[in-house]
Amino acid sequence: MTSPPTSIDRAAELRDTPGIIDRLRADAATRVLAVREARVLIAAGHLVLRAPDEVADATWALLGRSADGAPILLASLAPEHGSVDSAPDDTWLGLRGLGGVLDAFENELLVEALAVDAWVRDAPFCPACGGATELRQAGWSRRCLVCAREHFPRTDPAVIVAPESADGERLLLGANAIWGGRMYSCFAGFAEAGESLESTVHRELEEEAGIRLSAVTYVSSQPWPFPRSLMLGFRAVVDDESAARADGEEIVDVRWFTRDEIGAALEGEGPVALPGRASIARRLIELWHRERSPQH
């Protein structure tokens, strides 16, 4: 599975331009994506982009340029902020509610906006000395006003793994405790300090499901701004299928699924639910299901 090249020009060369945010806010060609509480306005299945003068009292950052070269700014709104009016058929939705709705460009813009919104909202103080910071580089860095250290948006690598049987005919999924056992998904976990991604894959699967793996293969990645993750998707083959068991804490159940069972769950049928279309977990499951299904 390969991802298409990025469709957003992030305009990094503009970030150090003095007064760039004010200049772009005064440009009639600029469009603004407003984010409030990790949600954006959606109308007719598309992101609502406004003119700068339609949005006030926000924290601003540069997201980049659209395909036609128009600048795009983030307006990070305070909770319950009322400066962006919505028409009766407009709706505030988050990333999980938009799986499969937006096209590739808008989905990429949404994920970037949510990640930068969290950064400008949630990191006002220096982690080294506790001093207040000021936004710089059009929202992409902070400088401490006390110790002068520079800080940048943090991205935490995490692995997510779809383990299959040796014959490739069954897929192992787990039910996380936070889902109340109602949904089954791939196994995931953050890379620890000093740990390679490959080591993380083996450690997480042994901890959560009691299994050892072979033939670990990287598939693709997905930025996930909750809180600030980069999900790296893998597939793997389980050495001993009978060893699978839930850790009883984070994972409350593990289960082997046949291709027919996965197919039914993807159609919304059967007794278990699968991850939503916005997640890389869903894509890993769909990829495995397609490989040997009769229709393919």
Could you give the topology of this structure?
Layout: H1 20-25, E1 31-36, E2 39-43, E3 46-47, E4 59-65, E5 71-77, E6 91-93, H2 104-122, E7 133-136, E8 141-144, E9 150-151, E10 156-164, E11 170-176, E12 184-185, E13 187-190, H3 197-209, E14 213-224, E15 229-238, E16 251-258, H4 259-266, H5 280-292
Helix pairs in contact: 4-5
Word description of this protein:
This protein has 296 residues and is of the alpha+beta class. 20% of the residues lie in helices and 31% in strands. The protein contains five helices and 16 strands. The chain has helices at residues 20-25, 104-122, 197-209, 259-266, 280-292, and strands at 31-36, 39-43, 46-47, 59-65, 71-77, 91-93, 133-136, 141-144, 150-151, 156-164, 170-176, 184-185, 187-190, 213-224, 229-238, 251-258. Strands 1, 2, 3, 4, 5 and 6 form a six-stranded mixed β-sheet that branches. A four-stranded mixed β-sheet has the order 13-10-15-14, sandwiched between helices. It has a three-stranded antiparallel β-sheet with strand order 7-8-9, with no helix packed on it. A hairpin with a 4-residue loop joins strand 7 (133-136) and strand 8. Helix 4 (259-266) packs across helix 5. The longest helix has 19 residues, at 104-122. The chain is globular and about 65 Å long. The mean pLDDT is 91.
